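Readers of this paper often ask what the protein records in our data store actually look like. The remainder of this section carries one protein's record, kept here as part of the documentation.

:::
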Amino acid sequence: MDVNVTRAGMLTTVQDLGRRGFRAIGVPLSGAVDAFALRVANLLVGNAENTAGLECTLVGPELIFTRDTLVALGGADFAGLPLWQPSVWRAGETLRLDAARRGCRGYLAVAGGLSVPGVLGSGSTFLRAQFGGTQGRALKDGDVLSAREFARHVAGHWHVDERILPAYSAAPTVRVVAGAQAAEYGGALFEGVFKVSAQSDRMGVRLGGAPLARNGNAELGSATVLPGTIQVPPDGNPIILMADAQTIGGYPQAAHVIGVDLPLVAQLRPGDTVCFREVSLAEAHDAARARERAIGMLREGLAQKFS
């Protein structure tokens, strides 16, 4: 089945859950910035959670399918398609995702999944290195994507119970664990409210506010960083590293966003605000286990919804 891109949107890329196992040679994880949203959207159309779909940023694409298919949208709320429920889309109809009403990134899953060449075991687009996805770039008007033909029929009318969803907000409180240099910033990270900069991207969410002052000037060697690491450059304005972030960095690390709350950061848009709350590593692990249990229950419940 072909997926004709009549309008590409602001920044639409093919993403799955990323390239795992290559950080030691400097290859970022990449993949969906809001991995939860892509996982659930895929489950809603009967796909494996790692299946490639579209990540749509702020203004979505306009698509025409050459066969009837089942689609689902997770993450940001775009006009044109209901959130968190499967929808049948007919051949020749135009699926138009206009400006996002809430959130930043929406994830469009198509039954059977998008078919793109794998690079290091993943179809994800890594824009800076220009590989993966569709020729290593964002979609453009006139592109034609290929989707695996996969007949899915949904039993009944239903949607995801909102209680399992992240607490998406334009002003979230995000939980973090202390970073290696946390003590050098005292409690300043937890006392401020930070505004999201327009310079944010898939590499990192840049924040503005009262600059964080470091108590100490010892030189730091480069250290491992991950999606969720909060680095503090010399100007004192924190950066939350995201899916396309580098694998090592030399800036002080004030904290690390816990994995369960990374979707909240992924959905921040320029002008939104965020504040931070410290939790223990044990609390972070408990939250991760609870999230996986919720997704597991959803996975089991959906097994009876398709034919």
Q: What stands out?
A: The first strand starts at residue 2 and ends at 7.
